[in-house]
Design goal:
Radius of gyration: 13 Å
Strand content: 15-25%
Number of helices: 3
Oligomer: single chain
Shape: globular
Length: about 100
């Protein structure tokens, strides 16, 4: 699978393309739904000076991100976001997380 290969340049390219498309601006708040280890939010902070909240269901990935990545990271089930106020984020990104959802999610 894709996680067995070094893909940092591809992931960075995806983030840059999405950020330009969405129009990231310094100081904006970005939700990364299914943030994994936080690489996308780190690049977003470095390249576009946005602030990020990463949300992931995998506790080990969140623990790693909290130590090694830029942003705030939460271990939570992203299928229920009622605890976040409407309109809280300027942008929402997600990369490959939807692949892990079932048809009923």
């Amino acid at each position: 699978g894709m996680w067995r290969e070094e893909m940092s340049e591809q992931h960075k390219c995806v983030l840059v393309s999405v950020a330009h498309f969405l129009g990231f601006k310094p100081g904006q708040l970005v939700l990364d739904w299914g943030s994994g280890c936080g690489h996308k939010l780190t690049w977003a902070k470095m390249l576009f000076d946005v602030d990020g909240l990463g949300l992931d269901i995998m506790g080990a990935a969140v623990a790693w991100a909290k130590v090694h990545s830029a942003g705030t990271f939460c271990h939570a089930d992203g299928r229920d976001l009622r605890w976040l106020p409407d309109g809280f984020f300027d942008h929402v990104i997600s990369y490959a997380a939807i692949y892990h959802l079932s048809h009923t999610d």
